Each structure stands twice: as C-alpha cells, then as structure tokens.
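Fold it.
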Amino acid sequence: MTEKITVSVLGTGIMGAAMAGNLARAGHTVRAWNRTRDRAEPLAGEGVHIAATPAEAVAGADVVLTMLHDGAAVAEVMAQAAPGLRAGAAWVQSTTVALEAIEELAGFARGHNLVFFDAPVLGTRQPAETGQLLVLAAGPHEARATVAPVFDAVGARTMWTGADAASGSATRLKLVANSWVIAVTNAAGETMALAQGLGVDPQDFFDAIAGGPLDMGYLHAKAALILEDRLSPASFAVNTAAKDARLIVEAGQQHGVHLDVAAASAQRLERAAAQGHGTQDMAAAYYASFDDPQTP
C-alpha cells in the first residue's frame, strides 16, 4: 500500500488545485495555501486544510509542492514559508520557471536543508483533474521514494531526466515540449482566423487534411474551443502561455538558438492578453489576428 504522507501545496490555480484534490483523494494529509484564499476554499470540501500563510501550510510537511506563476513568485512564497519548513523535507518544484531560477531555488533548498526536485508537469486542466499528468522529474535517487506517492497521485507516469535537480534537466525538457504546444496552438488559431477572413468553412479545411499526416487531434481540440466559443474556463490560460513562451525564447537566446516562431507566439499571446483574453484558454490567441478583439 502507498504510504500516506503530509503534503503542502503552495499555489492552487488550475493545476495546483487539481493536484491538491488528487492528493487528498489518494488519502494523504494535504495543506494548501493560495495568495487569493477564496480560490483555495473549494478544496476544503475535499478534506484539504486551507492555510492562512505559507509557513502554516508547510509546517511539519513531508513534501512541499510549489505550483505558482513563475520563479519570482516561487522564491517569494518559499521565503515566506521558511519559518515552517522542516529540515529534510522534500521540495517538489513544479512551477515552470526560467533555467537560471532553477539554480537559485536549488540554492534556497540547500540553505534550508530541503531535498530539491525539479518536477514540472505536462498536461492541462482535464488531465490534472483526473491525475493523468506526465511528471518530468530530476532529483536524487535516494529520496525518490519520498516523492513517489505524490507523483503517483497527480500523474499517470513519471519520466526521470536525471539525478541533479539543480541542472534543470526536467525544466529544460518542459520548455522544449511547451515550445511545440504553443507553436501548434498558435498555428491552429491563425488557421481558423484565416478561414474566417477568407470566408472558408473550417470544416472544408478539416475534410481536406482528414486522415493524413497533417491531421491532429490537438488541432481539432483547440479549433473546437474557438469555433464553439468554449474558451472559458481555461485549460491553459493565455497569460501563463505568454509567460512560458518568453521563457522559451530566453532559454534559446542563452544557448545560441534563434526561436522566431516562439518569439512570434509570445507576441500573439501578449496581444491577446492586452485585448482582454488573458484568463481564457491559450487558444484565444486566435483573437490576436484581428484588430477588433471581439471578431467572432
């Protein structure tokens, strides 16, 4: 039987809330904190203790899981949590952050005697809610048994990328995977926008590529959100995708790689956010193709 442990979840947005719920359903003791407490309160109905502060949330926890907006937010919240951290606890850092932030966060972990795991996840709202995420993880072999119950509760599979979490190998893979996700999503939106502009029935396009190498389930899924106006609630929000796109571009620049598609994708997502679509699904970057953000 899986050992029952105490897990602190810091950040209960789309992903963090789903992960906390799955941890509670797996029988673990879960304490959660969110900057906006009202967004965490629904988890109380699933047996999750809602903490008033990060320090309260992490007190006595075997595993601390961070799922926040970016590296700066993680650093800030963990600094607030510091008085409650237990020496020897495992820290599962699942926020998608810049590569240089991984080194800084690993340094914080060393300074507070935490066992650090670089562990972003692949997946959106639906797989998060059903515990079907892919966990990308790097961390020491000798401590993996401690975090295994957490990964088993939130994911369908764990892919280990290395033993040195400070190297950011899991985050590097996450950025590569997200570069593909963001590029495909923006391409789907542009295709639907061009069809709109040229008066082409999108179904004719789908029929033209049906069954061939250009056909993709993901294309149909994102196009349906646009065509059926189902962009809320978001599976992966425009604001978050824009942040990730910028991280991807910066990572490429740091390693001598020009990422023109990612840079253009970041601009489209940021334009869609400025038009008022920031909290909608990332497919809402479709609207960035039009001067009028309300164009159907």
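The two ends are 52 Å apart (CA to CA).
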